[in-house]
User: What shape does this take?
Amino acid sequence: MGRLLPFIGDYMRRWIFNPVALVLALALIVVVPAGASGNGEFRGKWWNYYERGMENSGNGEWEKAFSDLKKAGSMREKDQRMARTYGMHFIDYFPHRELGIVYFGMGKIEEAAAELEASIHQEESAKAVHYLNKARRELLLRQRTAIDAPSIVITHPTQDKAVKDSLIRVRGTVSGKGLISRITVNSTNIGIDLAGKEFAFDREITVDDTDGRILVTAEDLLGNVTTKSVAVRVDTEGPLIAIYDLIAGEAGGKKSVRITGEITD
Assistant: This one.
């Protein structure tokens, strides 16, 4: 700011002769709000604690990061995008998410899951979803009990159903205590971000006219995989008509034709 003053003063002395100079002089005046840290100085604002906490977290300094992020969260609690710091300055602010990641790094998985769930509830982000899936997987592993592979129920189509088009709508549900993380229908991925106990699927796919097989695969966070299939009969051709004989006749004054043949489908 100090370096700008001589230039501003020079323009101000000449403004009466050049109005454009006055406009330029005023444009050079930069107002820095109280408490701003444009020079990187730590001023004890919530964003200072947050940014320092993020840096410490990135360096694996969990205790320092925990202290800073806790302080930031106590000063401004809610996760949100484009949080205003000062003037026209904004940052993406995720204290719950970043604190959850710190807890995960510290091995406090239940606390990590709670913070990540809070973050997603307030402002969902791919990063929070990724770490919550990791935290939930770790909690499942810590149960030390056997968890069954996913269960798949295909409600449509039914086995050996005859269909007239190779484009078929496939519906059903997948469930599992290991939290479903992936579903595919004939290699088409059904998008799942945050793993859960149950998902419904409804997808149009194209099946092979000769095979007619529909294959549904489900995987949970523990890597357990289940596959289920149904087969349909794809009939894209209409009935086949074969006419063997045509005999014209007349009875009671009315003309008639007797057709002899066969219809197959």
